[in-house]
């Protein structure tokens, strides 16, 4: 878990606009470029920029203490959006417009639903480019196909895979709220672009998230 002093992509900005974090008024504030600071409290007499950390999905998080015993982790991009961006439509997700997950400047964020999030133009372009793999000659393709002939899955294994992929699966946000429900893991992967194997691993508790989301059987 990488820790660092939170600044906008590594730059400290003296012109930050600071606002209270809802629910933590008088304790913490978040800035327009994604810094979070604690206000004077307890024995501290000065403001202090907090250290954040990058989670395994590449998002910046910070720990806030509502009291001297409890500590909770929050995504910085959501704190910025909640404090600075109007959300009259009650959209559930926050999109990084340039797809850089640690660039939490307010102008790089917008509220969105999941469909809007996965249809980010830059994200779609990156996915398209990543799918441009090595091109094989017809002869190489024929040889690869011939090599696989005769190799079949055991009927029990095949049945298990089919049954596993037929069950509905739910996509959840970071707070555990259901975003969408799909008929199967295969459909979820096709619509969201997330690797179905990784979705399955989350459902089996082999990993925490896939594509930045939680998944469970519906």
TrEMBL record:
Superkingdom of the organism of origin: Bacteria
Presence of keyword Hydrolase: yes
Gene Ontology MF, one: hydrolase activity, acting on ester bonds
Pfam families the record matches: NUMOD3, NUMOD4
Domain NUMOD4, chain residue ranges per copy: 17-64
Keywords: Endonuclease, Hydrolase, Nuclease
Domain spans labelled Nuclease associated modular: 135-152
Protein known as: Endonuclease
């Amino acid at each position: 878990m990488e820790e660092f002093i939170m600044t906008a992509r590594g730059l400290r900005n003296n012109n930050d606009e600071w606002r209270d974090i809802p629910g933590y008024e008088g304790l913490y504030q978040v800035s327009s470029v994604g810094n979070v600071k604690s206000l004077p409290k307890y024995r501290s007499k000065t403001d202090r920029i907090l250290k954040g950390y990058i989670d395994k999905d590449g998002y910046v998080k910070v720990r806030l203490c509502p009291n001297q015993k409890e500590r909770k982790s929050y995504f910085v991009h959501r704190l910025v959006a909640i404090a600075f961006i109007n959300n009259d439509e009650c959209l559930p997700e926050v999109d990084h417009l340039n797809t850089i997950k640690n660039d939490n400047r307010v102008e790089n964020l917008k509220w969105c639903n999941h469909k809007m999030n996965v249809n980010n133009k830059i994200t779609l372009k990156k996915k398209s480019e990543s799918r441009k793999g090595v091109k094989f000659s017809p002869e190489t393709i024929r040889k690869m196909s011939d090599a696989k002939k005769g190799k079949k899955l055991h009927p029990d294994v095949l049945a298990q895979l089919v049954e596993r992929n037929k069950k509905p699966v739910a996509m959840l946000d970071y707070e555990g709220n259901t975003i969408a429900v799909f008929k199967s893991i295969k459909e979820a992967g096709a619509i969201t672009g997330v690797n179905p194997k990784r979705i399955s691993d989350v459902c089996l508790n082999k990993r925490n998230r896939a594509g930045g989301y939680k998944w469970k059987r519906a």
